[in-house]
Design goal:
alpha/beta; about 280 residues; three-stranded parallel sheet; 9 helices; 10 strands
Length: about 280
């Protein structure tokens, strides 16, 4: 559900513009957003992607304040067709049609049992996601580890395996290096390795522009948009419960803020354990 009232078409895959947070902003199309939430569940909740699961997911976007233009509605532009097909879009006065669709899909389901199954499902990457990330890195010259990068990567992997076997204590590994030394390449390869180990991992970079560069380099024109969900900004973790993730890889850690901008009055600080790791 979105409170949008108008929007504009923008260049970029699944990107548009609307009024958010007091000004016009570039953001993702509502149907893309709904589809990405569905894919996120399918890629990380074991109760949904396991072979024994009979649960089917459907996604929609409902803009209850948005009156659809009679001619040339921006959000129905043909460039959004693939996302509109996966997650149909409903506007103001479309509530009866949406209700009819929902009634047809889920009114006779075992709602309580399904909700409990999803809530209790183990959070770990699906085999499909692991294979997708691995295939995107494999054979791509931009992500080949060179010299000290390879050394740093192997030290991270070795330390991680020690942590898993010996202790449940949280640990931090810091990789130091100037601009252009390949820290991001190391981070992406580490993420791929962690996924193969069934770790619930995400890649953090506080700089949105840099985050998009990483996504585009990794995904390219492959169409594997579900990989986008692995990359987040630091503000995404303001309300995350303790110990929710197994591993978080932070790129450009010096840009992290002490307080999340989503929670300006918060006085909490992130306390890191003793740091160690390769100097790469």
């Amino acid at each position: 559900m979105k409170q949008w009232q108008k929007a504009k078409v923008l260049e970029g895959d699944g990107i548009d513009q609307t009024y958010l947070g007091g000004r016009e902003r570039e953001t993702v199309h509502p149907s893309y957003q709904a589809s990405s939430y569905k894919r996120y569940l399918q890629n990380f909740n074991e109760s949904l992607y396991s072979e024994s699961s009979s649960i089917q997911l459907h996604s929609f976007a409902y803009l209850h304040n948005y009156i659809m233009a009679s001619i040339g509605e921006p959000l129905l532009d043909k460039r959004y067709n693939s996302y509109l097909k996966e997650s149909p879009l409903y506007f103001q006065f479309g509530d009866s049609e949406l209700a009819k669709k929902i009634r047809k899909l889920v009114s006779r389901g075992n709602g309580k049992e399904i909700a409990e199954s999803i809530e209790k499902g183990k959070i770990r990457p699906s085999k499909k996601l692991v294979e997708t990330v691995g295939s995107l890195l494999k054979g791509n010259e931009e992500f080949v580890l060179l010299d000290e990068q390879k050394v740093a990567y192997e030290k991270v992997v070795s330390k991680y395996n020690q942590f898993v076997e010996q202790t449940d204590q949280k640990n931090v590994i810091i990789i130091k290096g100037g601009p252009g030394t390949g820290k991001s390449v190391i981070g992406l390869n580490v993420m791929s390795y962690m996924l193969t180990k069934k770790a619930y991992v995400e890649y953090i970079t506080p700089n949105q522009a840099f985050r998009e560069v990483l996504r585009k380099k990794l995904i390219g024109t492959s169409g594997h948009v579900e990989v986008r969900d692995l990359f987040k900004g630091s503000a995404s973790y303001v309300h995350v419960p303790e110990n929710y993730f197994d591993v978080l890889i932070c790129d450009e850690a010096h840009r992290l803020k002490e307080h999340g901008h989503m929670k300006k009055k918060s006085k909490g600080k992130t306390k890191l354990p003793k740091s160690f790791g390769p100097q790469g």
